[in-house]
Specification:
With 325 residues, the protein is an alpha/beta fold. 34% of the residues lie in helices and 24% in strands. Strands 1, 2, 3, 4, 5 and 6 form a six-stranded mixed sheet that branches. Strands 13-12-11-14-15-16 form a six-stranded parallel sheet, sandwiched between helices. Strands 8-7-10-9 form a four-stranded antiparallel sheet, with helices on one face. Helix 1 packs across helix 4 and helix 5 packs across helix 10. The longest helix has 17 residues.
Length: 325
C-alpha cells in the first residue's frame, strides 16, 4: 500500500498560509519513472513570496517548480509539469539521475476557477487531524475534485495516476507511543516525528513528563493504562517502553498485544527481557503474542548513549513499518 504519510505538514501549512492571506499553491508528484528521488504523492507548498515547505524532488527541480507555481498563482489555473534528464530546465536544476517526474501544481482558491478549493483543503486537514484515512481525487482533464473517507486497512489503495484521475491516499501517520519520558525519549520523539511518525510520550512521573523536556510534542503525565485510553492503540500504533519499571511498561505491552499494535519494543538487557517475557507468560499471554515483543529494543549497532540508542530504535521502527521486521 502506498501512502503519503511523509507529507505530514504540507496540507496543514498550505491551509495556514492561505488563511493568513497569502496566495499558495500545492505541487504534488503524480507519476515517476526511473530513479526519481521522491515517490508519487510527495508534495511541496509554495507561497507567492517564494516560501516553500516540503519537497517533490529532493531539491533537484524545486527552483523550477517554485517558478511554475508562482506563474500558476497569477492565473489561478492548475498545470502539469514533466521533468526528466533530457529536459534542459530539469538538468540545469540538478535532475541528472536518470529519473523522470510528473508534477501537478494546484493553486488554492476560495472556490472560484479550476484551482484547489480551500473547502476541500480544509476538509482534508480536518480528517487528517482526526486520523481518518481519505482518498483525494482530481480529474486532470476537467479539474473536478472529491475527497472520500476510507476504511483501514487499504490493501489495494495506491497513490498515482489512473486514466484521467490522480488519486492520493492520505493515511494516518503511524502513532508511536513512548512509555517513559527518559533521555532516550527526548532524542527519539523528534526523530520519529521527522520520519513521519506521530509520537506521544507518556509517563506517570511528573518530574519526567514535562512540556519543557519535550517542546512541541504531546506529553501525558498519567498512569499508563489511563494514558493509553486517552491516546488509543490500534494496528497503526507502535509502542516502545523505556520506563525501566514493570508497573509503567507492562500495561503498555499488554494493551499493545491486545489491540494489535504493529510493533512493540522494550528497552533493557537480555536478562531484563527474559524476566519481562516470563511475566507475560505468567499473565496468560499466548506464546505467539509473547514472540511479538522485541527486546532489547533497536537494531544491534553497538549503540552507546541516548542519541545512538535512539538511532538504533528508529531504524528498527522503520523496518517494522516497511514490513522488514
Amino acid at each position: 500500500m502506498a501512502d503519503v504519510t511523509g507529507l505530514k505538514t504540507v496540507p496543514e501549512t498550505a491551509l495556514h498560509w492561505h488563511c493568513a492571506g497569502r496566495r499558495v499553491a500545492i505541487a504534488t508528484v503524480v507519476e515517476t519513472w526511473g530513479s526519481a528521488p521522491c515517490p508519487a504523492g510527495s508534495q511541496v507548498v509554495i507561497a507567492d513570496d517564494g516560501a516553500i515547505e516540503g519537497s517533490v524532488s529532493g531539491g533537484c527541480v524545486e527552483g523550477a517548480v517554485v517558478a511554475e507555481a508562482q506563474a500558476a498563482l497569477e492565473v489561478g489555473v492548475p498545470r502539469l509539469l514533466t521533468y526528466g534528464v533530457t529536459d534542459d530546465d530539469a538538468f540545469a536544476a540538478g535532475l541528472a539521475c536518470g529519473g523522470t517526474i510528473r508534477i501537478l501544481v494546484e493553486p488554492v482558491t476560495d472556490g472560484d476557477g479550476s484551482g484547489l478549493p480551500v473547502a476541500i483543503l480544509s476538509d482534508l486537514v480536518e480528517k487528517r487531524a482526526a486520523r481518518v484515512a481519505v482518498m483525494y481525487e482530481v480529474n486532470l482533464s476537467t479539474w473536478v475534485r472529491r475527497l472520500l473517507a476510507m476504511t483501514l486497512p487499504l490493501p489495494n489503495a495506491e497513490t498515482g495516476v489512473k486514466g484521467d484521475l490522480f488519486v492520493a491516499i492520505h493515511t494516518p501517520p503511524p502513532r508511536l507511543i513512548l512509555v517513559g519520558a527518559v533521555h532516550i525519549a527526548q532524542v527519539l520523539a523528534p526523530m520519529a516525528a521527522a520520519a513521519g511518525f506521530d509520537p506521544v510520550v507518556i509517563d506517570p512521573r511528573s518530574s519526567f513528563a514535562t512540556p519543557e523536556r519535550f517542546p512541541t510534542l504531546p506529553v501525558i503525565c498519567d498512569d499508563t493504562e489511563a494514558a493509553l485510553v486517552l491516546v488509543g492503540v490500534d494496528p497503526q500504533t507502535a509502542i516502545v517502553t523505556l520506563g525501566h519499571d514493570p508497573k509503567i511498561d507492562d500495561p503498555a505491552i499488554l494493551k499493545g498485544l491486545a489491540k494489535g499494535a504493529f510493533y512493540i519494543g522494550c528497552l533493557g538487557s537480555r536478562r531484563t527481557h527474559r524476566a519481562r517475557l516470563d511475566r507475560l507468560r505468567a499473565a496468560g499471554v499466548l506464546p505467539a503474542d509473547v514472540s511479538r515483543v522485541h527486546g532489547p529494543v533497536g537494531l544491534d549497532i553497538g549503540a552507546k548513549g541516548p542519541a545512538e540508542i535512539a538511532v538504533s530504535i528508529m531504524a528498527e521502527l522503520i523496518a517494522a513499518r516497511r514490513g522488514k521486521v
